[in-house]
Specification:
Length: 192
């Protein structure tokens, strides 16, 4: 079973992906996490990626599709949770082709629906919690960069909602509830 979690920054995609990893034999593929790992590598590509991420823009399709392609080669018995990927129509097309090449497809595309007004509060809270725990604080978890991330979401990623709706694959979940309430709604979809 392969699923996409889609929604604006701060919607809870990463949190819900981790819950699914813990409760099912699925593998989380977060391009954001992969890119954060790449940026610490000190390579030319890592430095370029860091600059783009810190501005809240999207890195090139070529880079993220390459990262996903590598992970798909490794396989996952329980399937993949795509978290933060695809974020553009080109990425969505590429994912479809990659999955087809592996003789598999998408089981569901789950949109986490959260009020815009709640999002910035969530990412500011995430930054404060990371700092309090002595963990690295994401440079893009600031109200200023958040505006650009949200704009990138509406401009480049939100069109995917129509794309998957047209394929009959889009399912919407109310992302405003508690973590467990949201997880229960997702479980209902996956068990249907
Ligand atoms: P995230 O952790 O998903 O919020 O991603 C953090 C940042 O990584 C984004 O703001 C983008 O700069 C970059 N990024 C993550 N995933 C993608 C993607 N699928 N396509 C392009 N850029 C991405």
């Amino acid at each position: 079973m392969n699923i996409i979690l889609i929604g604006p920054p701060g919607a809870g995609k990463g949190t819900q992906a981790q819950k699914l990893v813990a409760s099912r034999d699925m593998m989380q593929l977060s391009t954001g996490d992969m890119l954060r790992a790449a940026r610490t590598s000190g390579t030319e590509m890592g430095n370029r990626v860091a600059e783009v991420m810190d501005k809240g823009d999207l890195v090139t399709d070529e880079i993220v599709i390459g990262l996903i392609e590598e992970k798909l080669e490794q396989g996952s018995a329980g399937g993949f949770i795509f978290d933060g990927f695809p974020r553009t129509l080109a990425q969505a097309d590429a994912l479809g082709a990659l999955l087809a090449r592996h003789n598999t497809g998408l089981h569901a595309v789950i949109e986490l629906v959260v009020d815009d007004a709640a999002l910035v509060g969530r990412i500011v809270k995430r930054a404060a919690e990371a700092q309090a725990a002595g963990q690295p604080v994401r440079k893009d978890d600031t109200p200023e960069v958040f505006d650009d991330r949200l704009r990138a979401y509406y401009k480049q990623t939100a069109p995917l909602l129509g794309y998957y709706h047209a394929k009959g694959q889009l399912q919407r979940v109310d992302g405003m509830g508690s973590m467990d309430t949201v997880a229960a709604q997702i479980a209902t979809i996956l068990d249907a």
